[in-house]
Amino acid sequence: MDTFTLIGSVMIAILAITTHEAAHAWVADRLGDPTARLRGRVTLNPVPHIDPIMTIGLPALLLAMGSPFIFGGARPVPVDMRYFKNPKRDFALVAIAGPLSNLIQAMLWAGLLSILLHTEVWPDPESRGVQVLVMGIFINVLLAIFNLIPLPPLDGSRIVMYFLRGEALRSYVQLERFGLFLILALVFYVDGFGVAMRSVIMEVVGFIEQLAMLS
């Protein structure tokens, strides 16, 4: 990957993470919880969302270790469920907002790619600009799919919580204390996880690109 593509990909990744977190905060505010808004999280400014360890340190460490799957995170968006009219449902909606924002971004990058190729602004599909837009699609789909894994504290776990009751819910919530370790174990010790994730991600990327090319 050349310098131009690398810088472009990093900028897109920052935008993807920032929008993901801002979407959580915005939906929470719309559903009655002002906590994140009052802490300055309803913003596309990346600074309030960046966590030095999860956003920078962990991806760099995984990359240095040659991990087959690179991931990171942002500073968690604070949510106070006491403000919600329907706490379990609204908590799930706040969770869905993040991955949904990434899928929308992926489609927007794909749409821009389609326009530039069809109008021959960038006629060469191997050009650096095209590669950056393709990375934009890939990064956003990766964030969406990864965050939908049903392991606390990922967004997918918040959706699962909506369907759980009683002791099952209490036991599931307790997993959050070990969340990061469970995710790392999944990445490093579950055979085929990285391959399976990449396969799913590429299927979704291909579908989005096909939709864009047909538009």
Structural features, described:
It is built from nine helices and no strands. With 215 residues, it is mostly helical. The chain has one domain. The longest helix is centred in the middle third of the chain and has 32 residues, at 87-118. The radius of gyration is 18 Å and the shape is globular.
Topology:
Layout: H1 3-30, H2 35-38, H3 52-64, H4 87-118, H5 128-147, H6 155-163, H7 166-174, H8 179-189, H9 193-214
Helix pairs in contact: 1-4, 1-5, 4-5, 4-6, 4-9, 5-9
Distance between the termini: 29 Å
Integer tally of domains = 1
| H/I helix tally | 9
Mean pLDDT figure: 90
Structural class per helix/strand content?
mainly alpha
Task: Please give the number of β-strands.
Answer: 0
Share of residues in strands: under 5%
Shape, principal axes of CA atoms? globular
Main sheet summary: none
Q: Which percent range fits the helix content?
A: 55-70%
Unreliable residue runs: none
Order of helices and strands: HHHHHHHHH
Radius of gyration, rounded? 18 Å
